[in-house]
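Entry type: protein chain
Record version: 2
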Amino acid sequence: MGGDGALKCREMLARNHRLALRICAPGFTLDSFTLLQQWQRERLASSYSDLRSQPGCRPACDFFLSELYGGLDFTERDQDMEKVMPVMIRFLSDKILMSLADAFELQAISLEFDLEMAEILRVQGLRKLNDASYGAVYRRCNNRPLRERQIRLIRQLGLDLARLVHRRFMMQLVRLLRGPAHATGFGKLQVFLEDGLGAFKKLDDPKLFIDTIYQRESQSMQKLFDGEKHPFRL
């Protein structure tokens, strides 16, 4: 049952589930993975400190850069999603489900990048990171087409969220689900949906916010592949 959005949702959830199993597997290089993710969170906080300093922008920054782009593991939330999928297919349009699927694809791509980079860190015995060592590992992965897709997904998701927050029924539906979601164990998924929509509703100019992230990440990617000394300097 369901259209292309529902199908992609299931595919992306399965993809994230396989990644979660890798992270939980015995012998996983957790130290390198944690080092990488911590460094990336600090980099993102620095790159977008100007946006995060604006009260209306901070929630959207945190949602995008931590929950979607940051590569964090949200296994429990994704398990909630798998359980509630039949209900979501019934109440949400396939277009909205496609946006959700894109969000989970972005999460999967980010985690896959981090897993690959963490393994390189482990093999090379790197215990500290800076712009130069991060850039060298980044280029070693040699995955520019996927990096470009990751950044395009950020822009697409931002535009989708900007449209959804102006649909009254969507906000009302998410709020109505708050009590039942927490009561039935789907609290993390509920918070994810409500935080994302709520964050974008606070933005004065969603397109400017989205374009800023898209442009900065595109420029940083280009500088990283070019081997520039300071790839994240604006």
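Comment: The chain has twelve helices and no strands.
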